[in-house]
Amino acid sequence: MSAPSGAGQTLAEKILARAGGLERVVPGQIVEGKVDLAMMHEQGAQTVGPFHQMGAEKVWDPERVVIAIDHWVPASTEGAAVLHRILRKFAAEMQLPHFYDVGNHGICHQILAENGWVVPGDLAVGTDSHTNMLGAMGALAAGIGPTEMAAVLALGQLWLKVPPTIRVRVRGRLGPGVTAKDLVLRVLGEIKTTGATYKAIEYCGPTIEGLSMPERFTICNMTTEMGAKAGMVSPDQKTFDYLAPIAKHAMHPLRPDPDAFYERTVEIEVDGMEPMVACPYSPDNVRPLPEVAREHVKVDQVFLGSCTNARIEDLREGAALMKGHRVAPGVRFIVSPASTKIYEQCLREGIIQTFTEAGAVFTNSSCSACFGGNMGILAPEEVCASSSNRNFPGRMGAKQARIYLLSPAATVAAAIRGELADPREMM
Amino acid sequence: MTVRDVIEGRVWVLGDDVDTDGIIGGKYLTIIDPEELKKHVFEIALPEFAGGARTGDIVVAGENFGCGSSREHAPQALRAIGVGAIVADSFARIFYRNSINLGIPTIEAKGVRRLFEKGDPARIEMRAGRVTNARSGASATFPPLPHHLLELLEVGGLVEKVRLELEHRKAAARAAP
Description:
- Chain A has 427 residues and is of the alpha/beta class.
- Chain A has 14 helices and 18 strands.
- Helices cover 32% and strands 18% of the residues of chain B.
- Chain B is globular, with a radius of gyration of 17 Å.
């Protein structure tokens, strides 16, 4: 498929044209793109072998490489300790100065966001699928595997097929207790887990313009669950204000042309929208939360964390709801901030105290219970209400465990009631 | 592994939306050795596979194969098993890239899943763009891989391709006055 000649270009097309040093590109074209930022977490340990096998002797630009360990922090198994050691040794040998190690750690995408590592117009790649989150900066940010990362470290570029773009235009006002997470779940319910495979999604419309940067992070983050190569928001004053004090390199903002060619436009109206929940076993199995709550779904564990929803705004909102309540008997409530910086904010604001006194476990920053390989692992038949992004069989432990994906406020409501509940009833 | 024009093998069949947790669970992600990883491949999606698969077997799946996390452990484990090819109605993008980068013939052929049952013999013609069930004779076609990707498979994957590229650059630098 190609765009009609003379038509304008989408944001993804403009960024890939810039990265490839080309005037313009069309969907389907393969571009050798220069990378502005490369990020690795523990999976980067598997980059080291291929990097050496390629005969590479140095990293193309150490100032453009960030290593942020997050899955097992501090190392919880010998295997994880070895991955960390491989990365530390590689960083020392290659003189990579930007290593976010234990004590200065956080979930890799949050580290990139809060330290200004990705700016408008960038082509960014990371060894994690949720690298899409950084598209909220007006960048094209995509997940890649470790072998491909080795090629990026060696050459500073990678091949990308220019994706067709789906435009998601959102109108209306999110009601009290209805969040960006509910919005992205709603979009997932429309586009489904395969609806954007190999494609880019551009979020636009008055509702998106009205969202804060952290809210945009949540939305671009879960674009991954639609199969997309990128989820992005055109940069505006909010983007520039967020990045101005922290940007690590020069911004080169690009915006979609008014006459850009979109494969399809999905219109979403959020006036009157209810909180949403993705039921087992797929992130696109989305239903209105009040409807599911009426079925009295009892929970064994609640998780408020992950790169999707563990920023300070999420934890403040959760703590405000938690205050004056207790975690229901028999429920384990795990709260894990997205970075050490956020942890420190929680400490200063009394948020750790609020959760701990209510009977929750407030952990250090990491991916925590989200991926079933570190802590907060579920036993067969257990049920978890989670603010994270995936609910596939076995995602958080046992194959037979059931995971419901919700907004931060809705996870707290579940922790208080011991079953799925509409957070608006407690506000 | 370098790609042959015709690939033949015995088929294992999986359904739609087999995600990377179903290929290699999160608890195995600290394993680096592919020989160790392969013992756990498809533990959730197809438990009899790891013990029963032989070198050259072909994996046939439905829509959105390899969705979920970016873990390369998934195609690495399949490469360690020695799968001859992975054929699916559609792939998730990161899995597709990882698999091609590792040199595994990875083929998207719409409608392929319903042509096969477990154990059927498959024949894949890379350049002609056809997958045939040699038992039933039914076949599905696919657009042959773009030149760029065929070239990647022909040299044996991305590591080899970049190695050659770097060698070439070094030679050019030496030759320069």
